[in-house]
Every structure is written in structure tokens, then in C-alpha cells.
């Protein structure tokens, strides 16, 4: 039941957000799976793999005690390498103002709960994620919009990251496999990987610090643009940074 519910939710989330972007053919190939090296408004390149990344912060704790939190959405060059900070002219630092101007108050409220900075400076965290990663997603460049309005792509980016995150409930997927936060229990890498692979449909990157689970990255290839294109789960391009056994998953 859990897997079916997640799969249905993911399907509904990954089909589009009705952005004002140029229409893309449904016959176009998925990013990373094509020999094309030409970036277009309908083909993500060179950052053809998109990673929805999450945190489990416990020192200090961030976000709800029964949920992971958002790290970001990162374009990867299909091989584990990536470009960053691709357009300094669009490295906006007033994310809250932009979202409020666009009438995305509900999105902003959600981000304040689930996309939180470990030092309490959410605004700087969001600006960092947009400037470093969002500006490198070529299919949301201003030229890709029809009737573009200033900073339209910024709101679309944050909305898409949140939509993806809502379809990837890491806490629930682990709990369904009997993997819950504990001060005494430890878990194996294979058990954690299996639980999240079952939800996502492909293997994920798992990160640990001092043997404590604290990160997960979900990899996708995209057909069409990054906002209303079709997302397909693909296996991790990066080896997990956790030990094979004795992994701690401590409570917030």
C-alpha cells in the first residue's frame, strides 16, 4: 500500500506545473540518455541529471521531527561533475520578496518549515541554492519563457523543488522498512538503500557524518524542461558516503 500511494503521488507531481515555458515535444529524449550536446529550452544540458537533495539535521535540529528537510535541486553533468553559479546577473538574494510578489505565499510558508537553514538564515540558504544551482538549469533561462516576466523562473524553480520533495517522503519510506530514528539502534547501508530505492525506483546517494545518516540525493533524468517536463528516476551517479554497517539514524 505504501509503495503504491507514493508511486501515484509521484506520478501526479512529476507531470508538470503549467509554467509559461515554451512547449516541448513529448517525443524528445531524456537528458543524459541522448548523444546531443546542444542545450535547448527542451533539453537539459550539460546538467542533464537533476538531483533532489535532502538533509536530516540533528545538531542543531531543523524542521519537523518526523520529516527530512530540503537541500535543493542540483543539475549534474550526467557523470558526477557539475557546473555552479552560472549567471551572476540572476543571483538574486531577495527570494522572499520575489515569491511574495508572485503571490506564492503558501509556497513560502512551506519553505519556512521544510527548507530551513541550520543557522536559522533561510533567506541566505535559498539565495545560495538558487544562485549556485538554479541558475545552471538551462531550460529555465529567461529566453525559454513565452511572455517572460522578471524573475518568473525563480518562483518556478522553488515551486518545482518543493513539488519533488513532497513526492519523496524519506522519513516515511524508512519507517515503513522499520528504520526509525534511535539513540541506540544502528542500521546497514543496504537496508537503508533498499527502502529508498523501493520508493524512488532507482538507487540513491546516502551521506553520513561521523557514522550518522544525514543526507540523501535522488537522481532524475528529464524529458523536456525542468519545470513541466517528465521526470524519470535514475540510479545515483555518486558512491554513498556511509559505512556498510553500524549507521546511526539519531532523533532530532
UniProtKB/TrEMBL annotation:
Pfam families noted in UniProt: Ribonuclease_T2 (PF00445)
Entry's Gene Ontology molecular function annotations: hydrolase activity; ribonuclease T2 activity; RNA binding
GO biological process: RNA catabolic process
EC number(s) given by UniProt: 4.6.1.19
The organism's place on the tree of life at top rank: Eukaryota
Active site annotation, chain numbering: 71, 129, 133
Keywords in alphabetical order: Disulfide bond, Endonuclease, Glycoprotein, Hydrolase, Lyase, Nuclease, Signal
Keyword Signal (UniProt): yes
Signal sequence, renumbered to the chain: 1-19
PROSITE patterns reported in the protein's UniProt record: RNASE_T2_1, RNASE_T2_2
EC top class, as a word: lyase
InterPro entries: Ribonuclease_T2_eukaryotic, RNase_T2-like, RNase_T2-like_sf, RNase_T2_His_AS_1, RNase_T2_His_AS_2
Keyword hit for Kinase: no
Any one cellular-component term (Gene Ontology): extracellular region
Family to which this protein belongs: Belongs to the RNase T2 family.
Name of the molecule in the record: ribonuclease T2
